[in-house]
Write a structure and sequence with these properties.
There is one protein chain. The chain is mainly α and 486 residues long. It has 2 domains: 310 residues, no CATH class; 73 residues, no CATH class. It has 21 helices and 2 strands. Strands 1-2 form a two-stranded antiparallel ribbon. It starts with a helix and ends in a 15-residue tail after the last helix.
Length: 486
Amino acid sequence: MLTVLKKNWIYITGVLFIALNMMLVFTKDFYFLNLLPAALFVVFGALFALDKLFWFVVICTPLSLNLEEMSGGVGLYLPTEPILFIIMLIFFFKQIKDNSHRDKRIINHPISIALYFHFAWIFITSLTSSDPIVSFKFLLSQLWFVVPCYFFAIWLFRHKISNALTFVWCYLLPLTVVLIITVVKHAAHGFDEEVGHWIMSPFFKDHTSYGAIIALFYPVVASLTFYKKYSFETRALLGVMLIIFTVALFYSYTRAAYLSVVGAGLVYLLFKFKIKFKYLLVVGLFVGGIIAANWTEISYMLMKNDAEHTTQDVGERIQSMSNVSSDASNLERLNRWNSALRMFEARPIFGFGPGTYAMQYAPFQAPEDETIISTNFGTGGNAHSEYLGPLAEQGVLGLFSMIWLVVAIFYTSSMVYIRLEDKELKRIVMMLMLGLVTYFTHGVLNNYLDTDKASVPVWGFVAIIVAIDVYHSRGLKQLPEEPAGH
């Protein structure tokens, strides 16, 4: 009997589990036991294959679902955020337990230093927050994005830079599936603009976040389509994906995404033709001077612009980006920005606390700024800016820390690209940098780094660039040992 049990324990355990689960479902309406296999899978990955668990998270991110939208509960993305939290804890444990997993070149990297200041200031302003519990939850959520997707991911990219493309493909393929599903559903509704605001649900909460992620990967897909080291079949597949991304981007009806892709194209041309920064500065000052000298006339023209973003005409949609006379979306964004500035004036040093904007901005809305879509109940989202949000929530140093971080990312990316001689690595750095250009350009008008959809690829892209900078572009003589979890 014991021999039979030993040989067939897996089957016996499975049958007992199914029987127990069925009994609980049908007699107690208890469904949570269904999560046990998934939990065991995560535990196994965390203990024995942390790198593979990370790849699993990246694959799941485009497909993740928001628990708040499903059940009205906490705003948690499943299954990604709980797993990222586990990876973060294990990474911290490994760092404390084993000094060999630390590398001063990563610890002292300019982007890492900018992140230390960023998190230190979030911690300080959480202590002074108008709602410390919300702020510390915000701090924790930011940590479980950055620690696995930046610090841990660097270890995955340091020996095998091919892991960089693995990361890209792990996100890209399921994202393409989401785009296909969304485009097909949207086509069934005649690509109606109003439908385009919600048709990407449940994978994305709205069309702006959907457009931002499409724009983030658009330069990546475009670059890989012409990557000669790929087979003809792979490049043909990428060509089809590029068409899908183009259609999805167009019908996302996200004007900021359009603008960000154009911005990435201009940055590419700057590097392609090796235009020096001093010339850009001169042109920028010249254009700024013209705008300042003619601001009265420009303001009058903007007020006369009545182009609507709901039109199917592409030219009018682009023109509507400067409509501040009747476009409710633009006017509401200005309302949020003005509210953020008034919040900053009220608390210029420490702000109202990380993550508290939605709960605090209502009293700072001026009656003349409010629109037909304004709300006083904190249900309309955040400050719609990666820069003004921190200004309102964390004061002047919050804005400074964000600008410092962005400057460090793009300065590092530029220097690495210029220094590299390997054409394959240069292509990787360029396509990731252009992707980041789209995101942080889009970040002027919207902010999504509090979601897994944006944080996982953004910090993953930055991690790849840092890994190339430290381990693959300086003639490194000695690499660190294998990462935690291998």
